[in-house]
Amino acid sequence: MKIASARVIVTCPGRNFVTLVIETDQGVTGIGDATLNGRELAVASYLTDHVIPCLIGRDPSQIEDIWQYLYRGAYWRRGPVGMTAIAAVDTALWDIKGKVCGQPLYQLLGGKSRERVLVYGHANGADLHSTVEAVGRYIEMGYHAIRAQSGIPGIDKAYGVGRGDTYYEPADARLPTETVWDTAKYLDFAPRLFDKLREAYGFGPQLLHDVHHRLTPNEAAQLGKSLEPHRLFWMEDATPAENQEAFRHIRRHTTTPLAVGEVFNTIWDCKQLIEEQLIDYIRATVVHAGGITHLRRIADFAAMYQVRTGSHGATDLSPVCMGAALHFDTWVPNFGIQEYMRHTEETDAVFPHDYRFEDGHLICGESPGHGVTIDEALAAKYPYNPMCLPVARLSDGTMWNW
Q1: Which residue of 228, 276, 305, 360 is surrounded by the most CB atoms within 10 Å?
Q2: Is 159 a catalytic residue?
């Protein structure tokens, strides 16, 4: 069997997605997600101009060799564009292998470690009261774990406040929207939010919170300490992790569990964090960390240090990635939780899938491969719509981390 052709599909059924389709000379097709939010066309071009020509004629069953070829052979290693492109190829090849073998993807990885995958949803509100109500709605929908984000008094356009009850897409303009950030107001408000949530719902639901890289290590330590009485499932992205040593300071001062990694591309981005046990959950995901092949290496390394997985799962990955992630989650021994931000009905129609939500969990299907397809005719009805993620400044105009 040989790879006969490959093509890139860019579509926007509510938000932009990039999908790689690989076809073999025996008519077997595999698809992979190549979406990089706000930089979609960079990955599409990388695939079309540099990767696809190198795939034609290769044996699709040689997943490891192709991965190494695309990683080592490019010389310019790592980075979000290159690793997202590699992830798309890798996911599509695993999809093909599953279809050729007539097995769901999790079986190829070694079989099930669990019957279902715990997921968390996003409860967002413009203010404290509406966030408390939003958490209640997610509890009513059956969620056992919920991420809570709220608008903050005195801060316009706070991170995490969506435009709908279940759909949140931060990329909102052709040029980046500028927002203003105030750390002092946030540090004062965040503990009060979780005071109200625990008062309203007790300690039954697992609560999570995303800081979105906004704090210094010392500020993050203060926040983690103040949230300890609320027993959060995790505090996510407390400080930028380019300097992995920064998490030592946070770890010394709080027992609030720490999660990080949705922007990580390789095992090197989290090596120190894991081997020094500075985090509890690694959030690297299939689409941005080199596909299933490389994410498996990260998870195995993390297992040695009792760090669990908590893969990113927002709407900046397509159902193709979610399907692959759920097969990975079903297999991986050191699973922790899976983020699950629901896609729009238009997106679900473009990407038919066999995974399903039940009682706060997602269950992957039994179709050969990862169980997600693409309706190319329908995808063509949703042309690419350039959108950028926001940026943030402090009140004095200083650029900050969005």
Answers
A1: 360
A2: yes
